[in-house]
Design goal:
CATH superfamily of the largest domain: Glycogen Phosphorylase B
Number of strands: 13
Distance between the termini: 10 Å
Shape: globular
CATH topology of the largest domain: Rossmann fold
Strand content: 5-15%
Bound molecules: uridine-5'-diphosphate
CATH architecture of the largest domain: 3-Layer(aba) Sandwich
Strand order of the largest sheet: 3-2-1-4-5-6-7
Largest sheet: 7 strands, parallel
Length: 362
């Protein structure tokens, strides 16, 4: 069976690394990877393919740095051409980016089945481009692979029980990746000796809802600067979008800024930090995998089970709440002995479902 995987952004490379390793174990599956080009810098793309040994994409559409409409439109066009040529049995997409919705839409219009990994997640904030992408992708997918029980519950509430699709709770492929690559990262990464800090908080900040707003950015930048100066050093691998927006808003992050890091470095930063502060979806869960408390600089999160279990707090873009929560979470000893995201076998659950379904068709 031929599967086309469409990826384009950093978190998708990490998720694809886990699943592509599983596909490779099955001779009856041929995976063809299409990179839309959404993330293209060496440290936002190539490093992941190299370190995580993700198969090289057969196609790179090189579509990036455009408005949402132009980017998504061109991606649909490019992916459609690939689909017409390759004639796959299934198209697989991850998460919630423009590459996700473009892949799903191109396939659906050609009557090719769609599998969505990370289905059912909701932030309930329709202003976020990610929320629009994930809702639309879910609706046109045949296979909805859900990482959590709350994702299943969301789909049930939206009436998916009456829609012709398969909803499967698989656990989270990011946990598969974290478990597998954490065994290799210590040997390969030198980031901890390079930053030379005994104790530090790890931060990332890149979501459009924060970076696009000068008001939100000012609060968060001032909060992080104060935490760095008075509470605990902050190490922040800076996303290219954030760098550009800081300049635009005339703001300065006075923390330990480093360029975006590869996954091995990220895993070592996660293992060695005392706290995570982020607006990333993926990093909130990775904090949990490595038993670190997390302060989330957003108004909502899709990963509600982390909030329910008190290992993560939402602080929005409120400077004082960010500082107070960082202080609290640095002190708090949490119970991480709970299974929220499966047992690191999400990829094999996904592949087994696809194979079982395919055998029914043949
Ligand atoms: N990540 C990384 N290097 C960095 C920043 C993030 O490897 O400098 C990883 C991070 O560990 C996680 C993924 O990228 O696995 C998250 O991606 P991002 O925050 O860009 O997107 P989101 O998860 O918010 O969709």
């Amino acid at each position: 069976m031929k599967i086309i995987t469409v990826i384009g952004a950093r978190p998708q490379f990490i998720k694809a690394a886990a699943l592509s390793r599983e596909f490779a174990k099955h001779k009856e599956i041929q995976e063809v990877i299409v990179h839309t080009g959404q993330h293209f810098d060496a440290n936002m793309s190539d490093v992941f393919f190299d370190e995580m040994e993700i198969p090289k994409p057969t196609y790179n559409l090189e579509i990036n740095s455009l408005s949402h409409g132009a980017m998504t439109g061109r991606m649909i066009e490019g992916i459609e051409e690939v689909l017409l040529k390759e004639k796959p049995d299934l198209l697989l997409v991850y998460g919630d980016t423009n590459s996700t919705i473009a892949g799903a839409l191109a396939a659906k219009k050609l009557h090719i089945k769609v599998a969505h990994v990370e289905a059912g997640l909701r932030s309930f904030n329709m202003e976020m481009p990610e929320e629009v992408n994930r809702i639309l992708t879910d609706r046109i997918s045949e296979f909805l692979f859900c990482p959590t029980q709350s994702a299943i519950d969301n789909l049930e509430k939206e009436g998916y029980n009456n829609i012709d699709c398969e909803i499967i709770r698989t656990g989270d492929v990011m946990q598969d990746a974290a478990l597998f690559y954490a065994q290799k990262s210590e040997e390969k990464s030198t980031v901890i000796s390079e930053i030379g800090l005994e104790k530090f908080a790890l931060a990332t900040l890149h979501r459009a809802e924060n970076t696009d707003s000068k008001e939100r950015m000012t609060q968060l930048v001032n909060g992080l600067n104060e935490i760095h100066e008075t509470i605990c050093p902050v190490v922040l691998p800076i996303h290219p979008r954030t760098k550009a927006k800081l300049e635009l808003h005339g703001l300065e992050l006075k923390v330990k800024l480093i360029p975006p890091v590869g996954y091995f470095d990220m895993l070592e930063l996660l293992k060695n930090c005392s706290l995570v502060m982020t607006d990333s979806g993926g990093l909130q869960k990775e904090a949990f995998f490595f038993q670190k408390n997390c302060v989330t600089m957003r108004d909502q999160t899709e990963w509600v089970e982390l909030i329910d279990n008190k290992v993560n707090v939402l602080v929005g873009a409120d400077k004082n709440l960010l500082i107070d929560s960082a202080k609290e979470m640095l002190k708090q000893s949490s119970d991480f002995n709970i299974n929220l995201y499966g047992n690191g076998k999400a990829s094999s659950a996904i592949v087994n479902t696809i194979l079982a379904e395919n055998s029914k068709i043949i």
